[in-house]
Specification:
Blueprint (H helix, E strand, L loop, with lengths): L1 H27 L10 H29 L11
Length: 78
C-alpha cells in the first residue's frame, strides 16, 4: 500500500512537469491556450510548473536515497 501512495506522490508533480513542457512547447507553434492572455504568460506558467514539478520529484528521490544511504558522503547530513 505504501508503494502506491509513493507512486501517487511522485506521479502528480511529474504530470505537472509534463504539463509545463507542453505549455512551453505550444508557444513555439503560436498556440495560445485558454487561461493565458499572452504567449509570454503561458511560457512563464509552463516554466514555473516544470521547475516545481521537477524539483519535487528530484527532492523526493534524493530524500529517499538519503534515507537508504545510497548517496555520496558529501550529501549526508552532518
Amino acid at each position: 500500500m505504501q508503494r502506491y501512495i509513493a507512486l501517487l506522490i511522485v506521479l502528480l508533480p511529474g504530470l505537472l512537469a509534463v504539463y509545463g513542457i507542453k505549455q512551453m512547447r505550444d508557444i513555439f507553434f503560436n498556440l495560445l491556450n485558454f487561461p493565458y492572455p499572452y504567449l509570454w504568460v503561458q511560457f512563464i506558467a509552463g516554466l514555473l510548473s516544470f521547475v516545481l514539478g521537477l524539483a519535487f520529484v528530484g527532492g523526493f528521490i534524493f530524500y529517499r536515497d538519503r534515507k537508504r544511504n545510497k548517496i555520496q558522503p558529501r550529501f549526508n547530513k552532518k
